Amino acid sequence: MTTAPTTRTRERPGGEEEATSDLRLGEFQNVPTLTLSEARLLINAVMDHRKQQRQVNETETLIKTQDYLDVFARFKQKENIEAVERMLASRVELELFERSQLGSLCCESAEEAKTLIPSLSSKISDVDLQELLDDISKLRNFTEG
Predict the structure, then answer these.
(1) How far apart are CA 54 and CA 2, in angstroms?
(2) What is the SS3 assignment for 142?
(3) Alpha-helix runs per DSSP H in 15-125
C-alpha cells in the first residue's frame, strides 16, 4: 500500500530580494527604512496623538507590535535615537537598509556586524565599522526600562 507524501513542496518567493553579501532588495532598494527604536518612537507618537483626538483603535496586532518594540528597541530616549540616526546617515557608503540594521542590532564588534549584515564586508573597513559601533554603543542606556 502506497501512502501519499506528508509534506508539500514550498513555492519559491517570486521576488529577487536578498540580503546577503550582494544586497538586492528589488523594489525596496532605495526605500527609507527605520530602526526598531525609530519605529517605536513613531508609533508611540501617533498613538499619543490619536489618544488626544480620542480616535484610539488599539488592535491586537498594534498592541503586539508595541510590546515587541518595547522589548527590542535599543534606544528609548528621542535624543539618543536622533543621535544614532545622524551617525548612521553620515555613512553615505552604506545602503539605507544596512544603516537601519546597524541601528537595530547594535552589534558589539565589526565581525559580528559583518556576519549579520554580509553586504557590509565590501563597503566599510573593520576599523571604521568598529568605531561606528563603539559610538553607537556609547548612546545606549542600559538602565532604561
Answers:
(1) 62
(2) coil
(3) 36-52, 60-72, 78-89, 96-105, 110-116
Q: Which 3 state secondary structure label does DSSP give 18? A: strand
| Strand stretches in the chain, DSSP E | 18-19, 23-24
pLDDT in tens, the chain (145 residues): 566 656 666 665 556 666 777 788 888 888 999 999 999 999 999 999 998 888 888 899 999 999 999 999 999 999 999 999 999 999 999 999 999 999 999 999 999 999 999 999 999 999 999 999 999 999 986 544 4
SS3 11: coil
Phi-psi region of 11 (alpha: psi -120 to 50; beta: other; left: phi over 0): beta
> Is 24 in a helix, a strand, or coil?
strand
List the grid coordinates of 74: 535599543
